[in-house]
Specification:
4-stranded mixed sheet, alpha/beta, 11 helices, single chain, CBS-domain, 51% helix
C-alpha cells in the first residue's frame, strides 16, 4: 500500500484524464475522488476465493465458492477503507487527492504532497493501517454475537484481513506505510528527506530477507513441500524488494539533483526579437539564442545547426524567426541559476520537452537541455 505518489492535477468530474487511461474500471467517485479497480485485482480475487473455498469444495462446493467470493470482496472493501483513510487525512492537511486504485498488491492513493511536513506525511501514511486496526477490533468485538457458521466465517475473515493489513503495512520498511513513517522520522531528525528514503529502503530490504527466511526458508528446511502458499511468499518478497530498491535509488538520485546547480548545466543565452536579422545575433562562443515576444516572454529557440545553415551572404536578410523553432508555452524555467536544478527538471518532465529557457529577474539568462542534465547527473 502506498500513501502518496508524485503530484498530478486532479481530473475533473467529466471524462477521465489522459493519465488515468489504463488504470482499470472506475467503480466509484467518493467526495470527488475517482476510485479504480485495476485489472490485476482480479488475480488476487481468484487467489483468495480458491484459498477460502478449498476446505469446503469436497462437501459444499457452492457454499465454498460463495464464501470465497465474499471474502475477496471483503478484502477489496478493507483495502478501500485503508486507502480512504490515507485520502481523508491528506485532504485534511490540504493535499489534493488525485485517485485511489485497488490492484493485486492492495492499492495506492495518489496525491499532491503540497505544503507538506514530516509530521503530516507520517500521519497520512499511518492512517491506513490505523483504520484497518480499528475495523479489526470492531469485527473481533462482533464475533461473540454473530450466529451461524457462515456469518462466523465472514466476520472472522474481516478480523484476519484487517489485522493482517494493519500489521503488514505498519512494518518499518519501504514500500510499506511503515516505511514511509520511518522515512518521515529520519527526515525530521536530519532535515533530509532523501536520506530518509534511503534508510527506509534499506530497512525494507532487511524486512524482505527476514520474511523469506521465516515464511519460506524455515518451512522448506523443516521438510514442508513447496506449494502455492510458499511460492506466493516469494512473489510478495520480490515486490517488497523492488519497492525498497526503488526507494534507495530515488533517495540517491534526488540527493544528487539537490547538489547539482542549475548554472552548472545551463548555457548562457541572448534574447532577441523574431524580426531581428541573423547577422545581428551575437557570436559569443557557447551562448545560445532565445526569441522573445514584444513583452519579453520567451517563445522560440534558435538551434545552432539551423543557424549555421544560413549562408553568410543571406544573414543580413534572414529573420531570426526563419531559423527558430517555437516551443511549448510552459518551457520557461523561472529560477535562479545559483539554485538547484530541480525547477528545470520539473518543467522538462511535466511537458515532456527537451529544452527550457531560464528566466531570472525578469529576463532570459540561459537555456537548459535535458541531455545536459542527464549527463551531469550521470557523472555524479
Amino acid at each position: 500500500m502506498t500513501a502518496a505518489a508524485p503530484g498530478h492535477q486532479a481530473p475533473g468530474h467529466g471524462d477521465e484524464a489522459p493519465d488515468d487511461r489504463g488504470l482499470g474500471v472506475r467503480i466509484a467517485r467518493v467526495a470527488g475522488i475517482p476510485v479504480y479497480l485495476a485489472p490485476s485485482w482480479f488475480v488476487i480475487a481468484v487467489v483468495i476465493t480458491a484459498i477460502v473455498a478449498a476446505p469446503l469444495l469436497p462437501t459444499r462446493p457452492l457454499m465454498g465458492v460463495a464464501i470465497g467470493v465474499t471474502q475477496a470482496l471483503a478484502l477489496l472493501a478493507c483495502v478501500l477503507v485503508h486507502e480512504a483513510a490515507h485520502a481523508a487525512v491528506a485532504r485534511g492537511f490540504g493535499m489534493p487527492v488525485v485517485r485511489i486504485v485497488a490492484n493485486v498488491w492492495g492499492g495506492h492513493t495518489s496525491m499532491e504532497a503540497v505544503r507538506t511536513t514530516p509530521g503530516r506525511m507520517a500521519l497520512v501514511a499511518a492512517a491506513g493501517p490505523a483504520a484497518n486496526a480499528v475495523f479489526a477490533l470492531l469485527a473481533w468485538a462482533a464475533l461473540p454475537v454473530v450466529t451461524g457458521d457462515v456469518g462466523n466465517r465472514l466476520v472472522y475473515g474481516l478480523v484476519i484481513i484487517n489485522g493482517s493489513l494493519a500489521v503488514l503495512n505498519i512494518l518499518p520498511g519501504m514500500p510499506l506505510d511503515g516505511g514511509q513513517v520511518l522515512e518521515c522520522l529520519v527526515w525530521k531528525a536530519t532535515g533530509d528527506r532523501n536520506r530518509g528514503s534511503v534508510v527506509a529502503g534499506w530497512s525494507g530490504r532487511v524486512l524482505t530477507v527476514l520474511l523469506v527466511l521465516w515464511f519460506f526458508v524455515r518451512p522448506v528446511a523443516s521438510g514442508q513441500t513447496v506449494g502455492f502458499g510458499l511460492l506466493w511468499v516469494l512473489v510478495i518478497a520480490s515486490v517488497l524488494w523492488g519497492g525498497a530498491t526503488e526507494s534507495i535509488r530515488r533517495g540517491h538520485a534526488l540527493a544528487t539533483i539537490g547538489r547539482l546547480r542549475l548554472g552548472q548545466v545551463m548555457h548562457p543565452a541572448f534574447a532577441v526579437r523574431a524580426d531581428a536579422a541573423v547577422s545581428e545575433l551575437p557570436t559569443t562562443p557557447g551562448s545560445e539564442v532565445v526569441v522573445v515576444d514584444e513583452h519579453g516572454r520567451p517563445t522560440a529557440y534558435v538551434d545552432g545547426e539551423h543557424l549555421a545553415s544560413v549562408p553568410p551572404e543571406a544573414r543580413p536578410h534572414t529573420p531570426v524567426s526563419a531559423v527558430a523553432s517555437h516551443q511549448h508555452p510552459g518551457w520557461v524555467v523561472a529560477a535562479d541559476p545559483a539554485g538547484d536544478v530541480m525547477p528545470a527538471i520539473a518543467v522538462l518532465q511535466e511537458f515532456g520537452i527537451a529544452v527550457g529557457a531560464v528566466v531570472h529577474g525578469g529576463r532570459v539568462v540561459g537555456v537548459v537541455h535535458a541531455t545536459d542534465i542527464g549527463k551531469a547527473l550521470g557523472r555524479n
